[in-house]
Every structure is written in structure tokens, then in C-alpha cells.
Q: What sequence folds into this?
């Protein structure tokens, strides 16, 4: 069903338009193949919810012992505001790790502190088995 508009030429003149019907058919077949072969995405997040516990919370909860470790911009290490060296803080970490109720260790590195010193402190804590450790004061670095 072609319709010639414009300059004559009659029925014997060749048509200058390209037949795009086969191209559209191939595109639709490919689109259907892609839709079928793409796996269905599930946006579910698996959460392990805590079980309901009807027991009342204990009333004699002890406040956790907290030790503060700071590293200043010169590389000096502080244990509860007392300057210490790496072997001494390793011994403090060992004593803390051997306690039955391990105290919390809060690490606060200065923004200009060398990463190497902070890394040595973290490695010393990991080596002796400190598990309750966290960084504090990170909100000062947020932009």
C-alpha cells in the first residue's frame, strides 16, 4: 500500500523509501527476548527480627567501663588522658581483653593524626583480642 505523491513517474518508478517493517519486527522480537531473559529483581531485604521476650529487663544493669584512646596530630597516644607509648597501650589492651566483662574502648584520632600511628593502635588492639572498640567524634569530620 504505497501511495505516490508529488512528481509523476507512474507505477513503474522505483520507490525511494526504505521498508522499515522488518526492522521494527526484529526490534520487537529482541525486546521480548530481553524482557523474558532478565531475571526478576526482588527488592526485599531479609531482616532477622528479634524474638519477643516477655521477661522484664534486669534492674541491676552496670554501667560499662569506658576507656578513651586518643591520637594527636604529633602521633602521641593517650590512654584516659595520660600519654603512653605503643608497648604500654598494648599492655593496657591486653588487660582489658582479659577481663570477663570487656570494657569499651573509644578511639578518637585527631583529624591531622598520621594514619600509621592510628593503624598501629588498632593493630595492637586486634592482636590482643579487644572486641568492644569504636571510633568517637566522627561527627566533627562530616561536611
A:
Amino acid at each position: 500500500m504505497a501511495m505516490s505523491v508529488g512528481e509523476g513517474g507512474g507505477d513503474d518508478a522505483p520507490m525511494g523509501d526504505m521498508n522499515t517493517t522488518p526492522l521494527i519486527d526484529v526490534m520487537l522480537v529482541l525486546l521480548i527476548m530481553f524482557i523474558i531473559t532478565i531475571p526478576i529483581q526482588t527488592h526485599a531485604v531479609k531482616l532477622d527480627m528479634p524474638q519477643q521476650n516477655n521477661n522484664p529487663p534486669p534492674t541491676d544493669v552496670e554501667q560499662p567501663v569506658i576507656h578513651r584512646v586518643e591520637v594527636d596530630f604529633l602521633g602521641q597516644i593517650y590512654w584516659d588522658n595520660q600519654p603512653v607509648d605503643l608497648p604500654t597501650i598494648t599492655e593496657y589492651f591486653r588487660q582489658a581483653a582479659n577481663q570477663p566483662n570487656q570494657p569499651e574502648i573509644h578511639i578518637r584520632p585527631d583529624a591531622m593524626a598520621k594514619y600509621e600511628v592510628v593503624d598501629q593502635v588498632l593493630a595492637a588492639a586486634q592482636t590482643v583480642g579487644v572486641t568492644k572498640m569504636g571510633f568517637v567524634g566522627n561527627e566533627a569530620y562530616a561536611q
About this structure: The chain has a mean pLDDT of 83. Residues 21-37 form the longest helix (17 residues).
